[in-house]
Records
---
Amino acid sequence: MSIGANRTILCVIGTRPEAIKMAPVILSLRKKSFQVRVLATAQHRSLLDQVLDLFGIEPDIDLNIMKPNQSLASLTARLLLNVEEVLVSEKPDAVLVQGDTTTVMTVALACFYQHISVGHIEAGLRTWDIDNPFPEEANRVITGKLARWHFAPTEESRRNLLRDGIPDKNIFITGNTVIDTLLSLADQDLTLPINIDSNKRLVLITAHRRENFGEPLRSICQAIKTLSQNNPSVEFLYPIHPNPNVTETVNELLANRKNVHLCAPLDYTHFVATMKRSFLILTDSGGIQEEAPALGKPVLVLRNETERPEAIAQGVAKLVGHDYDRILSETQPLLDDESVYFAMKKGISPYGDGHAAERITKVLEEQLC
Ligand code: UD1
Ligand code: UDP
């Protein structure tokens, strides 16, 4: 019997980025003949289903937990009760979670109550500011306290875990699995989701973070509006996250502008095609901060703090926050000055080499044999 064949690993997925980043791990574990079970909490619904379909992953259990405009407390409470039931009936040998969402924190807590070992993928990201990003910094700190195996993407995230008192022997530097997924698609001939004049430059925008709701998001949208007026030969594309706190503001401030294209969230292959086609990316997303450098795209981060400082240190990403003037003063030179642009367009990948899932699988084979 091969290593791991009698061990059951429950892989949990709640939101779009968790699915994108867990998919290569599920596929890799299955090759090694672990008994892999997939639990979709479906904290996200349509966004999650797009990714699961793409990778042919069918959840064994689907909690279908999402409610429109869900509050953090109600989401947490519903998840905790439902996940406990699953753990009691599934009795897995280990549970894997990825990232810093409410699903991740709640599953780690439910496993702690049931004495089940948790492996945390993308462990050790920290801003050391509990309010930024909100609530993700708290989610990953709590998950870090409860997990048994910590799969850190970088040396910096390993150091953060050590600072948090995690023993070195429980930390494994693997790279980020998002690069595995990205590289599995990026070389393919992907079609663009919208028709954009091939002679025009494209600026891709996403923003969805809770700490940006309200005034910060309004200020981001006002800056995009001014940039689109000042640069009529540049096209701007904003796939809007379905959180109603985002859609309402973005539609109110950016609809019906000639060179601003608003659209529904793109499925992952279309989004990768769009990142590849873009000249520049403005985002508050975590995952896109990791993907953009790997594709050689300069990225301006619409946040005051980031738990992903590696790309900033290497000069391929810049933290610009949500201030209107700052967004303009950081974006315009990239559009006007080739030397500024090419200084940021280096094509390095600080977060991974495409083999993170294999490393995670190897650790689990050793730990669970
Ligand atoms: C969540 C995560 C965030 C992550 C983001 C990825 C938490 C607290 N937040 O934020 O860390 O960066 O996902 O995108 O875990 N909605 C839909 N359809 C969907 C998904 C969401 O309609 O497929 C709407 C619903 O109204 C839902 C709302 O968005 O209630 C918020 O979803 P939620 O998962 O609570 O928060 P996100 O802002 O998506
Ligand atoms: N993404 C996507 N379609 C979109 C926007 C983003 O497939 O319209 C992908 C993106 O490439 C990245 C992930 O979704 O892999 C990031 O998700 P999000 O920004 O929602 O969450 P975060 O990474 O901030 O937690």
---
Amino acid sequence: MEAVGDIAVIGLAVMGQNLILNMNDHGFTVVAYNRTVSKVDDFLANEAKGTRVIGAHSLQEMAALLKKPRRVMLMVKAGKPVDEFIEQLLGILEPGDIIIDGGNSLFEDTIRRTKYVESKGLLYIGTGVSGGEEGARRGPSIMPGGSPAAWPHVKPIFQAIAAKVTDPQTGAEEPCCDWVGEGGAGHYVKMTHNGIEYGDMQLICEAYHIMKDGLGMTPDEMHEVFKEWNEGELKSYLIEITRDILAKKDDDGQPLVDKILDTAGQKGTGKWTVISSQELGIPITLIAEAVYSRCVSAMKDQRVEASKVFPPSNSRFAGDRKRWIDDIRKALYASKIISYAQGYMLMRAAAEHYGWNLNYGGIALMWRGGCIIRSVFLGEIKKAFDKNPNLTNLLLDPFFKKAIKSCTRSWRKVVSMAVRKGIPVPALSTALAFFDGFRSARLPANLLQAQRDYFGAHTYERVDAPRGQFFHTNWTGHGGRVASGTYTV
Ligand code: 6PG
């Protein structure tokens, strides 16, 4: 058996198949394998017919067909199947060979797997792949991390098949794929991407809800609005698909969107982002609200019951519709800036915690094309980090500062009217609340510290004493003299 394969892909579900065909288009010889081997023959006889793709009917055959160091990419369900395949592959591959996991794996699993595979003398890559079916086929965004020594061997393939964008700074064509960092860095960045995806989707849904119930607009009318929005600063894949979804008719000619049950599903990456943010103490409030909004939507039966107990009042917004639409656009834009600022805060904290050297401008460029959150907006983020690689918060960049300032009036107007009319806007309003908190030099946490000290002797710092000096007051006169520790988790 001649070792002609450049890479093997295990898992012939839609993402695996499309990545293989994409690699084939770029001149690579791919070996395809699937646990249910009949799928291999089926793939070769149909989708891969007439290509250079080679089918393997066992892992041993697959390994024998690969050039060294062997590159084996898993496109299987995250979780146990990845560990099972790693175990099998370790028995077949040789030191120096590379195992790549291209699924939506939890970054902590990737940290563990990288160490484990490296301890056996092999190399490991855990990579985010975004862009869905179409992206995998025509050019996804790829976010690899793991063993740095593996990257040069994988780089030519990944960068060839990735989406390409023009760097706003240099004007050069760049692939939406670059080395993210060691261990779980690639999967962490992909997880954050998905969290931001949740936030973007929720913001769009809230804008839709206001237009539908507050302005009484039809899907066709909203289609026109999203079409217009897709020509300005909100231009993005998610706005574009929303435009198209709103125009889609069911078989009876009625808008399909109105026939879809309002309960959202989720596969867990948004939840993981929020869990990680809690662990790192970073307020990604918008993503958290987006995750919880999906949870509220899933409580359909209870919501129907509650709507009878608390029936909605008139939710219509008075005033000029055109002006409202413009206000909603600005509220959405400002909230989106907050969401990305929060996402970047999270990545910065994770980088520090896990010892990753993340390139924030590079991440914006990777997300600029190919992935689900791709947008012109990410070009502005790239520019911000190019100008100042040490930028601590996006909101402090001159471009975003100006953008937020120009939207604030509309943002407050939309959120307050939605609240008055009883239209839920958790993402738009939490973004505004975060903004107001972030720009407050003094918050009411002084009182909170007093409360903690009152009931638990948790101590507090004083405005008239150096930081790090802790005080306790005997608030009631009958408390003890002993204060509790001052640690903060
Ligand atoms: C992508 C998507 C992809 C997938 C999500 C959907 O980047 O291509 O994010 O990874 O569609 O996992 O997530 P939910 O099912 O949780 O909405």
